[in-house]
Structure formats: structure tokens, C-alpha cells
Design goal:
Elements: H1 12-20, H2 38-56, H3 61-79, E1 108-112, E2 117-126, E3 141-151
Antiparallel strand pairs: 1-2, 2-3
């Protein structure tokens, strides 16, 4: 092991490496996981372990989803909490990218995100096609303008 100051969870591998060190030549300082910090320390470790595991089966999305759902079911069973069913990943493996109101031509409206960033969405009709085309007789193309108005998030 390299010398230095660590803030690392002692895993089986780390423990093996520590046991190989000459106790007369190296000072080791260990502490028990603080009860208030345990959820952060352990979830960070699990996230790193899961990321590594999923990299081993990269490109096999169905298998990754199956493994993720098995872990979620284990948590549900161990903690006896039904709400973990809501965290199961749909087998389709889709990512939600956006949800917007259907907007009619010429309408303007405002909406906010959970982060309290407000947006403006305007729909206009342009007299020219937005896509390159050799045809002159094209219907007017809708032009959507989406812009941030202001953010009310506070930075501390």
C-alpha cells in the first residue's frame, strides 16, 4: 500500500494489504464508521462496486437491468419495505428525457423545473423550411424557441 492519508472503507482487499505491512515500520490509524455517516460511506462504496460490476457486462443492458432489479428486491426483502417496488427498472431500459405540454402555434407559456429554473417556450411559424430542401413550395415550418428566463436556485 502507498503511504498517505486515507479516508477509505476497509474492504477485504484493503484488510489483506494492511495485514502484509510491518507494524514496526508503519503507523495505521483506523476508526469505526460513524453512525451518521454510515449510509453515505456504504452507499458510495456500493455505487462504485455496482459500477465496476456493470462494466464487466457492458453492452448487456437486459442483464444489467436484471441484476439491478435483483438488488432492489433484496433491499425490499431485507428491509421489509414495499416502496422499493417503485424503484424496479422497467425491462425496456428506457430513459425519460422530457415531458412537455402540447403547444399550439403562436402560444407562449412558462413552466419551472424542480430545480426552480424557469423556462419560456414559444412556438412561431417561419416562412421558410428549417431543413435544407430543393423544393420551393414547402409549408411553413414551426420554430420552437426554448430559453431559460432565470434560475432561483441559491448557492451556498
Amino acid at each position: 500500500m502507498n503511504q498517505g492519508i486515507y479516508e477509505e472503507l476497509i474492504t477485504q482487499l484493503v484488510s489483506k494489504n494492511l495485514n502484509k505491512l510491518d507494524k514496526d515500520k508503519f503507523y495505521l490509524k483506523k476508526t469505526i464508521i460513524d453512525k451518521e455517516e454510515a449510509s453515505n460511506v456504504l452507499s458510495k462504496h456500493l455505487a462504485q462496486t455496482l459500477k465496476h460490476a456493470f462494466q464487466l457486462v457492458k453492452g448487456k443492458t437486459e442483464l444489467q437491468i436484471e441484476i439491478a432489479n435483483k438488488i432492489i428486491r433484496l433491499l425490499k426483502d431485507e428491509l421489509n419495505k414495499q416502496e422499493f417496488d417503485d424503484d424496479l427498472v422497467n425491462v425496456e431500459g428506457e430513459i425519460l428525457k422530457a415531458v412537455f405540454f402540447v403547444v399550439k402555434k403562436g402560444m407562449n407559456f412558462f413552466f419551472s423545473t424542480p430545480a426552480k429554473t424557469f423556462f419560456s417556450l414559444s412556438v412561431y411559424t417561419t416562412p421558410f423550411p428549417l431543413l435544407n430542401s430543393s423544393s420551393v413550395k414547402k409549408p411553413a415550418t414551426p420554430l420552437v424557441i426554448f430559453s431559460t428566463i432565470r434560475s432561483s436556485t441559491k448557492h451556498s
